[in-house]
Amino acid sequence: MKRPLLLGFLVLFTFLGFAQNGRPILIDSSSAYDIRNHGYFYEDKGLKATIDSLVQLKEKGKLTELTPYRTFNKGFSQSYWWIVFDVQNTLNEPVNLFFNERSNSVNRLQLFKVDSTGKITPMALTGDHFKFHSRPVNYHNYLYPIKLKAHEKASYFLWADKRGQNMTMPLGLAKDVDLVHGEIPFYTMFGIFVGIYLFAIIFNLFLFVSLRDVIHIYYALYVICVLLFNLEDEGLGFQWIYPNVPYLQDYLRSIIAFISSALLVQIMLLFINQNSSNSRFYHLINGYKYFCYALTLLPLYLLFVNSNMVLEKVNFFASNLLALLTVIILILNTTERILKGYKLAWYYLITMLILLLGILNYVFNSLGITSFYIFNTTGLVVGLTVEIIFLSFALTQRYNFLKKETKILQQQKTKLEIALVDDVFEAQENERRRLAQDLHDDLGGTLSAIKLNVTAFKSNIVQLPAENHAFYQQTINMIESACENLREISHNLMPKNLEKNGLINTLTEQLAELNQTGDITFEFVHDIEQAISPDIELTIYRIAKELINNVIKHAVATKASLQIISSEEQIVMMCEDNGLGFNTNTSNDGIGLANIKLRVNHLKGVFSLESNEMGTSISIFIPR
Prior knowledge:
Blueprint: H1 2-19, E1 25-27, E2 32-33, E3 40-44, H2 51-59, E4 64-65, E5 72-76, E6 80-89, E7 95-101, E8 108-115, E9 120-122, E10 142-148, E11 153-161, E12 166-169, E13 171-175, H3 176-182, H4 184-211, H5 215-233, H6 236-240, H7 248-271, H8 282-295, H9 297-304, H10 309-339, H11 345-366, H12 379-456, H13 466-493, H14 496-501, H15 503-517, E14 521-528, H16 534-555, E15 559-566, E16 570-577, H17 591-602, E17 606-612, E18 615-623
Parallel strand pairs: 1-6, 14-15
Antiparallel strand pairs: 2-13, 3-4, 3-6, 5-12, 6-11, 7-10, 7-13, 8-9, 8-11, 15-16, 16-18, 17-18
Helix pairs in contact: 4-5, 4-12, 5-7, 5-12, 7-8, 7-9, 7-10, 10-11, 11-12, 12-13, 16-17
């Protein structure tokens, strides 16, 4: 009875042992082999398993088969993990292989070989918690050389400590030369990505120097973060930048993720011109930006102060979910600006939708939900690269958009300024007209009445002494002078002959009067080929009067000339005198010159002044 029972257990044990040794990787002329279709795994939740206990578990058939054609991915891990696979060299010659663990981020890692006799041979203990040169092969992935004799059979046990990280392990087994050749496409693609990042950094720094727009500094910093993150994700940062600083790789990606999220928010605020006046979410999103910066303290604390599994878990999920949350928040804010009519926000929305796809792929892989990789890497690399290309293009479109918008605003400002000056000039002319009418009707009438009343007393002063006759005549002369001055003031305020006689005849008449009564001889030259509109004619008249008054008051001249030439293209005015002149470099413009320049600018003309001891010359060019 005991013998059949013992025989039955032996058969069962043999069957189980065969079951977990019946999927060996057959080494033949192929260049690479897929461990996923042949291997097993074991989760050591108690953190106590050893290589001896794993050998026993394998013999008892208590290991779990790997899922064929799917990357081993269990999400966030607090356990130790074992990967087991058998190999058999079917060739008549020795073969050199490389076992490749491609996750690039493992706390501790060690491979054990168990040959057909049961002999256990441990290989190098390595990982991120050791210096880079502790690796069996100085490579950005974890490579273990495997040598098999002709027809040799062996089992390999990989122990991995990824506590506090995502337990994803893309595994590879290939012949040494073929593995190197197989990495060429990866390095080519990654080199293209890095080239794009470097170009974007240099391009934005150049734009900042040229345009002094701070958005390009933030974007250059963001691209630098993206470059560092991708170097980290491929293990190249540890290899090239800080090979003698273990543990840093555990937390550097989290730090970069938090800073990148904050920079993305800042770039969005500047790109879509979001502020408190045009968005009800502005203060919330601005506070979220500083929250992202503050989160960098968590991985820094874990790196320098204390590594705690609870905080490790918080850091892991925060760094992954925050990136996803940030992109969703940016999409919502950008959508709000689009709904309010800001068309440029469409570029940023498309950019964030592209990035969202890459982040979803990365986060789902990190959480163990999916195991889909693009170009032998995470979709985040591809998403970030496409995002950088598109957003760099969008920044150039933003410049063109802002340039066009600035031009429109400048045109609107010019129109408002012109309208304002028009209103000022119109108000001045209306006030001049009112004053001229009031002086003529009221004060002029009063002076005329006074003159009539005083004249009425002329017959009564015949018998008065001679000195009273002189006083009477003096009074009459003063009243007449006042009336004459009043007529002149009214005439200057609103020349009644301008509309009736026109600009040239009015100025000819006034200069003729000045030549008869003044000490300066004025010459008036004119050539009007095309009629001038009444509004411009009035402005030119005001300019001419200011020029004439300046000569009379300040030039100390004996001769002066005024020229007005009108053609189809422009109106040219020139005023010259032979006075004392003045220093144009030190002399401030008086009210007269300021008024002239204001009116010339209003007509979009050009004002030119030359003055020396031989006299002064003013030229004015007004476009038609």
